[in-house]
């Protein structure tokens, strides 16, 4: 019986990993915790730059999570917290960069390339349809 | 004429990728360009290492430009830049303020005894809160703050003799020019 209890306890041990967040913070309720997780997952850790603040274990990520938590407790909005971080660490910390003149190329560059490709295709199609007589398309084996 | 279009496309792509390689090898990809440059340094009032009853504030340091060097006894790169700080940077003639970042004051004092203390004074930011205001995200980092308390230049990572020549000196020259 005792062995069985031990075994059961051992089986439950891995569950500890779920309970232990990187940094346990005293949230007031579940909604606040979700808001915190959502916000910190949108922000980039300045130190290990391919990790979000939510995932990173770098010392600065620790400090910034604490800062975000405290600002949330002080009633700051998500936008205010983001602005606070951008003022200090530049818009680099935002995983989703704002649409501003500096990032226009980033946001609209792909559209630009698509439009350029479309124009090239349109021009080619037009030119060919003008060049090729409509019925001459019999001996076109080697002519594309 | 139109048969050159694919070639032209290829050449454009080569140029684009070439530019990408050149751009990414030319600068440190991990460096975040601080938005605080040419803005007033954040206000701070931090205890002095060794005598925590004393505080040094931004106001007290106004009047003369100075270097603020972020360091910690836990920081390996700080050991590497230490000789450069003690010689080349010291020789530039500006006060050198140490910003002991997220460190145990005892460890910091021991570290300075072991390696030598190049700083005119050392202030302590034990929990890293003042560091956040400065946009610090690691150590070492070095700021040049002018007499009006404006951040003029920032270097992320260890200082090398090359950085002193190519970045610190021009930044100082720009300051001196303004000063008349």
Automatic annotation (TrEMBL), chain A:
GO terms for cellular component: plasma membrane
InterPro entries registered for this protein in UniProt: C-type_cytochrome_biogenesis, CcmH/CycL/Ccl2/NrfF_N, CcmH/CycL/NrfF/Ccl2_sf
Keywords: Cytochrome c-type biogenesis, Heme, Iron, Membrane, Metal-binding, Signal, Transmembrane, Transmembrane helix
Alphabetical list of Pfam families matching this protein: CcmH (PF03918)
UniProt-listed GO biological process terms: cytochrome complex assembly
Gene3D superfamilies, sorted: Cytochrome C biogenesis protein
Domain CcmH/CycL/Ccl2/NrfF N-terminal stretches: 8-141
Residue ranges crossing the lipid bilayer per the database entry: 104-123
One function term, GO molecular function aspect: metal ion binding
Region forming the signal peptide: 1-19
Function comment: Possible subunit of a heme lyase.
Family assignment from sequence similarity: Belongs to the CcmH/CycL/Ccl2/NrfF family.
Protein name according to UniProt: Cytochrome c-type biogenesis protein
From TrEMBL, chain B:
Protein known as: Thiol:disulfide interchange protein
InterPro entries: Periplasmic_diS_OxRdtase_DsbE, Redoxin, Thioredoxin-like_sf, Thioredoxin_domain, Thioredoxin_ResA/DsbE_sf
PROSITE patterns on file: THIOREDOXIN_2 (PS51352)
Membrane topology: Single-pass membrane protein
Keyword annotations: Cytochrome c-type biogenesis, Disulfide bond, Redox-active center
Chief place of localization: membrane
Family: Belongs to the thioredoxin family. DsbE subfamily.
Single annotated GO MF: disulfide oxidoreductase activity
Record PANTHER family: THIOL:DISULFIDE INTERCHANGE PROTEIN DSBE (PTHR42852)
Subcellular location: Cell inner membrane
